[in-house]
Write a structure and sequence with these properties.
By secondary structure, the protein is α/β, with parallel strands linked by helices. About 25% of the residues lie in helices and about 25% in strands. Strands 21-18-19-20-14-17-22 form a seven-stranded mixed sheet, with no helix packed on it. Strands 12-27-28-29-24-25 form a six-stranded mixed sheet. It is elongated, with a radius of gyration of 31 Å. The model has no long low-confidence stretch (mean pLDDT about 95). The structure holds adenosine-5'-triphosphate (ATP) and magnesium ion (2 copies). The site of one magnesium ion has 3 residues, from α9. It comes from Desulfomarina profundi. InterPro entries: aa-tRNA-synth_I_CS (IPR001412), Gln-tRNA-synth (IPR004514), Gln/Glu-tRNA_Ligase (IPR050132), Gln_tRNA_ligase_bac (IPR022861), Glu/Gln-tRNA-synth_Ib_cat-dom (IPR020058), Glu/Gln-tRNA-synth_Ib_codon-bd (IPR020059), tRNA-synt_1c_C2 (IPR049437).
């Protein structure tokens, strides 16, 4: 990591430490508890907590909970779990913007007293209309020049719940002709008749995001307030609020490019639509790019932190290919995942010359490249299952698997030679394949040195265990589900994003694996024992990712 050049944010921080501007770096991760965290949030978490770790600083977890209508304690708990799971530590306790409501109120009174805020009675529509556009200056509200005393009185009455929602707001008095629309007397408080998940019905008025955020940062002595690019235009308001109030500290807001990932959508609001429309099986559906979904899919914290390191932090919006995320989990699992065998779509093979009742054991390596991971014994019997796709009635020359006239190697087992096969007359489906085995080839090599190109996986029909395997694919069928304005993203869902294989048979050990365990099924990919649905006798395994990028050309 030392020789990698610093990204522009880490460079600013290094400079601020060197110049003595700061001696301790304090960052924060400020999610709104209105949904579950996704991989985009992970970028921000890894940045803020990463900077904390690298500089022996502090990173606060602050819930930005100023909109009681959409927030809930369920999300607070889910977010804490996800941040912890990624391996980060926010210190003694999580913080909440709502804890600052009393101070924020006092600061608003101060602004009013300074003549820098006023109570406005325009409706939301009128405020929008008066704001003007990028090419045309705004129009001043008729309430803009209310006397301070009247503003103080009305703001107090707003707080006391004397007015209806939408009838009054408090606005900062800045500049209706500013080229920046955010500076045209932005609303800083509104009335909401809603119960807040922490403050209950104590407050009838709630501060707006821009006003809350800079003051919360200031109250926590944040040194660098890192946010995504869409807040660049909000920075003047961030600075105006702190400058006007002459606060004792003034955090520096720095914007970076948000993560966009192909074949998915990245917004809590839209992910919520997938959940509520039951297009997926909850926030933690393994096809979701929520952290809880990725966890259930079998992604590790290390893979996500490595992914964040790979994509880096920049100033220009860009798209990251889903393959980059998939490679991150492959790289993490490849050296550590024990190899196992499982037949997803079984067809029976009968070894005509193998003793009827014999069950032998053959030795399989747990990891071909890492002998330290040891071996396991695999039961071998007269009747076996192989993958339906590993047999062809009329195979082309390059098909190095089983077919008439072919000999093939059973991984860690014997060489077997095709004899005959049977089909269901109605469906044409192959029902069983007869072969003979060569007793001289235990372990897979022939004493006479004859060459057998194909090696296939198998499971003993007698000793194998029935499992359910879910094969996941990308949730959307197009790179950018939101690109086409005429098509809703819901209509871009990939209908084959989950394929359930409920006749799969695996080597016996799979039955005893704890939920969350990750293994590689040879030739099939990395799989994770589903933590939430494996309670019954029959384990369910989720495919985390295929072995290589099957999408690459
Ligand atoms: P969403 O639209 O998905 O709800 P948000 O920005 O409204 O995202 P917050 O809970 O406010 O969600 O986000 C907390 C932090 O995570 C913010 O600092 C935000 O900038 C950052 N963040 C959110 N999405 C991304 C992303 N795609 N890439 C990088 N950072 C992100
Ligand atoms: Mg937000
Ligand atoms: Mg949002």
């Amino acid at each position: 990591q030392q020789d990698k050049p610093l990204d522009f944010i880490r460079q600013i921080i290094a400079d601020d430490l060197k110049s003595g501007k700061h001696s301790k770096i304090i960052t924060r991760f400020p999610p709104e508890p209105n949904g579950f965290l996704h991989i985009g949030h992970a970028k921000s978490i890894c940045l803020n907590f990463g900077i904390k770790e690298e500089n022996n600083g502090i990173c606060n977890l602050r819930f930005d909970d100023t909109n009681p209508c959409k927030e809930d304690n369920i999300y607070v708990e889910a977010i804490k779990k996800d941040v912890k799971w990624l391996g980060f530590d926010w210190g003694e306790r999580a913080l909440f913007s709502s804890d600052y409501f009393p101070q924020l109120y006092e600061y608003a009174i101060e602004l009013i007293k300074m003549g820098k805020a006023y109570v406005c009675e325009l409706s939301a529509d009128e405020i929008r209309e008066y704001r003007g556009t990028l090419t045309e200056p705004g129009k001043e509200s008729p309430w803009r020049d209310r006397p301070v005393k009247e503003n103080l009185e009305l703001f107090k009455r707003m707080k006391n719940g004397e007015f209806e929602e939408g009838s009054h707001v408090l606005r900062a008095k800045i500049d209706m002709a500013s080229p920046n629309l955010n500076m045209r007397d932005p609303v800083i408080y509104r009335i909401l008749e809603a119960e807040h998940h922490r403050t209950g019905n104590t407050w009838k008025i709630y501060p707006m995001y821009d006003y809350t955020h800079c003051l919360s940062d200031m109250l926590e002595n944040i040194t660098h307030s890192l946010c995504t690019l869409e807040f660049e235009d909000h920075r003047p308001l961030y600075d105006w609020t702190l400058d006007t109030l002459k606060t004792p500290c003034h955090p520096r807001q720095i914007e970076f490019a948000r993560l966009n990932l192909t074949y998915t959508i990245m917004s809590k609001r839209k992910l919520m639509q997938l959940v509520e429309g039951r297009h997926v099986d909850g926030w933690d559906d393994p096809r979701m790019i929520t952290l809880s979904g990725l966890r259930r899919r079998g992604y590790t914290p290390a893979s996500i932190r490595n992914f964040a390191g790979t994509i880096g932090v920049g100033k220009r919006d860009s798209w990251i290919d889903m393959t980059v995320l998939e490679n991150a989990i492959r790289d993490d699992l490849n050296p550590i995942a024990p190899r196992r065998m499982c037949v997803l779509d079984p067809v029976k093979v009968i070894l005509d010359n193998y003793p009827e009742d014999l069950v032998e054991e053959v030795e399989g390596k747990n990891h071909p490249q890492n002998p330290e991971m040891g071996t396991r014994m695999l039961p071998f019997s007269r009747e076996l299952y192989i993958e339906r796709a590993d047999f062809m009635e009329d195979p082309p020359r390059k098909f190095h698997r089983l077919g008439p006239g072919r000999e093939v190697r059973l991984r860690y087992g014997y060489l077997i030679q095709y004899v005959s096969h049977e089909k269901d007359e109605k469906t044409g489906e192959i029902t069983e394949i007869h072969c003979t085995y060569d007793p001289e080839t235990k372990g897979g090599s022939a004493p006479d040195g004859r060459k057998v190109k194909g090696t296939i996986h198998w499971v003993s029909a007698k000793k194998g265990v029935n499992i359910t395997v879910r094969l996941y694919d990308r949730l959307f069928k197009v790179e950018n589900p939101e690109e086409d304005r005429n098509t809703h993203f819901i209509d871009q869902l990939n209908p084959d994003s989950m394929i359930t294989m409920d006749r799969a048979v695996a080597e016996p050990e799979i039955a005893g694996l704890a939920p969350g365990t990750t293994i590689q099924f040879e030739r099939q990919g990395y799989f994770c024992v589903d933590p939430t649905t494996s309670e019954h006798n029959r384990p369910i395994l989720n495919r985390t990712v295929t072995l290589r990028d099957s999408w690459a050309k």
